[in-house]
Amino acid sequence: ITRDIIEWLQSFIQSTYHASEPIRSCKNFSEFIRHEWSCIYDETFGIKPLNKLYKKEMMNERDPVTKKRFKNVMKLRTSKIQHSLLIEDFVENFVHVRYEDVRDEPELFIETICRMFQIPKNVEFTPIVHVKGRGTIKYVRKTYPEIKEEDLKYIISEMDEDIEKKIGYM
Fold it and tell me: Is the CB of residue 168 less than 8 Å from the CB of residue 1?
């Protein structure tokens, strides 16, 4: 599952799990998208302060080709998507879906998967209307502030158009 890069970035700045402190404390979108990317072991990874790994950089979250930190979050995204798409070469049944398609038409998504993999649909579709893990809190789609034109240009210049096309964006 992938998400539109713009909405993904806007959401990601609010939940930067495992990101190093300079990234995590960054609330300015322009700075966030231009920040060199690094991840650390911390509580969000289940690592407590007494653990020797605590606040150490997660080397496996670096670029697998260069072994260096990602230049920015768009480069991280591209690498993660490229890697996840490799799964298709190793499994018999694989499907890539866009987050927006599942979110906006979940019943159609279920029907499509059932048809694609010849899975009988033996129950009525039940929409999920509450936030996962939040009991009775009704799901309301978040809205995000508009992105500055110079930030949009930077995002486009740093993303991989071929990958974005391959996954159904652009």
Answer: no
